[in-house]
Amino acid sequence: MHYIKCEDLDFNQTLAKDLVSLSDVIKTYPFRVSAHYAALIRKKDDAVWRQCIPDLKELEDDEQASDPLAETALSPVPGLIHRYPDRVVLLVSNRCPVYCRFCMRKRHVGEGERPLGPAALQAALAYIASKPEIRDVILSGGDPLMLDDFSLHHVLSSLRKIQHVSIIRIGTRIPVTLPDRVTPELCAMLKKFHPLYLNTHFNHPSEITTKSAQACALLADAGIPLGNQSVLLRGVNDTVGCMRELVTGLLGLRIRPYYIHQMDLVKGTGHFRTSVATGLEIIRGLRGHVSGLAVPHYVIDLPNGKGKVPLLPEMVVRKGNVLTVMTYQGEKVTYHDIDPLL
Q1: Which residue among 107, 244, 287, 308 is the active-site one?
Q2: 114 classed as catalytic
Q3: Among the four 159, 212, 265, 281, which has the fewest Cβ within 10 Å?
C-alpha cells in the first residue's frame, strides 16, 4: 500500500518563527499542515491556528492519558480495534494532511511513513473474517484517504469479499484539510463498494470553503451518505453561535451533523477541554433554533473503552403521571402521561 503525495507547509515565512520556538513540542508530537489548511488561518490563535499549530501547553502535565479509550487493550491484532460486538475500526494509515493538536491518537499518529503493511492487513482481515458478528468496518487512522486509489481499492475489495461485512464506513478529514484529494476518479472507485458511508470532520465554519464544498459535492453525487463528527474545543467552537453556523452550513453541503464529541482526555490536549455544561448549553441552543436535521448527538466517549454515551439537557421533570416539559424557548408546559406500569 502507498500514500498519496501531499504538499506540506512545514516552515514557511509566516509560521517559521513560531515553529522554531516550538521545536520541543514538535519533537514529541509531530507537526504537519497542508497548504490548503494553513491558508485558512486569518490571524494568530484563531480557530484554525489553534487546531493545527503546536502549543507549549501540549507539554504540560494535564493529568490525562495517552490512550484514554484503552484502544491498545481492545486491539486483538495490530491495526484493528474491536470495542463493540458488531463493528471494528481498521487503522489503515498513520498519516494525515494535518496533524490536529487535539487528536485522539496523538500518541502515534505521524510516527513513521508506512501504512498498515501487507502482513498486518492480512491478519486484520483474517480476524474480521473469523468473527461473523462483525457487520460494520470503519476505516480510520490517521486518514484513510491518504492511501492512493489503488491501495484503498485493495482494502475495500478485500473487505467486500467477507460475506458478513455489510457496511463499510470511512472516517476522514480530507474534505477539510486536503479537498483536492477528492477527485472524480476516487469517487467513481468508492461508489463500487456501497453501502459505503463517510464521516468527515468539520469543527468550525471557516473550514467550509469553495473547495471543501466541491469535494463534498463529488462524494454526495457518488451516492455516499455524508455525516460529520465535530470535537468540542475551547477557543475554537465552544459557543452556540459558532455551532449554529457550522451545523447549518454543513447541511448546505449535504452533510448531516452526526456527533459533537466531548473531547477525549488525551495527554497533551488538556488546554482544549471544555466543561460538559458548555456542551449541554450548545445542544440547548441548537434544538428548536435550527432544523432538526442539523442537531447532532452530543456524546462522551467514556474512558477505558466503555463506549459512547449521548448527553441531553434536562428537559423533563416527572411527578406521578404529570410531566413538566421545557420547550426550546424555555417555557414550561404540562403533559399528562399514562401510568408507565400499564
Answers
A1: 308
A2: no
A3: 281
